[in-house]
Amino acid sequence: MASPQFVIRQVDPSRSRRIWLFVALLWVGSLTLAVVATSLFLVARQPQAGQEPMDSMDTSALKMRIVVLERSEQVAKAALTELQQTLRDREEEIAGVRADLAFYGRLVGGAKREGLAVHALSLKPVPDSRAWNFSATLTQNFKRGPETRGKLTLAVSGIRNGALETLEWKDLGQQPGNAGIDYAFKYFQQVEGTIMLPDGFEPNRVRAMTEGDGGHSNQDFPWNDAAEAEEKDNVRQ
Question: Is the pLDDT of residue 12 over 60?
Answer without folding.
Answer: no
